[in-house]
Amino acid sequence: MNSQRPVNLDLRTIKLPVTAYTSILHRISGVILFVGIAIALYALGKSLGSEDGFGEVKAFMTSPLVKLVTWGLLSALLYHLVAGVRHLVMDTGLGETLEGGKLGSKIVIVVSVVLIVLAGVWVW
């Protein structure tokens, strides 16, 4: 083993590029969507099961905590969608350079923030 290798185990001091953050957030949003789809399917099944079930889900959706969870799931969906479109654009050959990747990541963050704020206004 080469003892000259730098070892940095303090994750707070590692400086990652913006492309790394967008990639990590894309994966995290995918996991959130995977878990959140179970919640959404349960609510959909309950609301379609009967008129009383629909009323229960409708009453449940008025809670501020449920609105926050709904906004969180919508935020994950919107970020994952925008980052996925970026990956599709990169598959065509656009933005594969280092500078193009950085610009694409910044665009993903800006567009996602705008869409997430709009989704928050819509939910609340």
Automatic annotation (TrEMBL):
InterPro entries: SQR/QFR_C/D, Succ_DH_cyt_bsu_CS, Succ_DH_cytb556, SuccDH_FuR_B_TM-su
Pfam family, one: Sdh_cyt
Coiled-coil regions, chain positions: none
Superkingdom, natural source: Bacteria
Keyword annotations of the record: Heme, Iron, Membrane, Metal-binding, Transmembrane, Transmembrane helix
Membrane topology: Multi-pass membrane protein
Cofactors: heme
Family: Belongs to the cytochrome b560 family.
Function (record text): Membrane-anchoring subunit of succinate dehydrogenase (SDH).
Assembly mode: Part of an enzyme complex containing four subunits: a flavoprotein, an iron-sulfur protein, plus two membrane-anchoring proteins, SdhC and SdhD. The complex can form homotrimers.
Name used for this protein in its record: Succinate dehydrogenase cytochrome b556 subunit
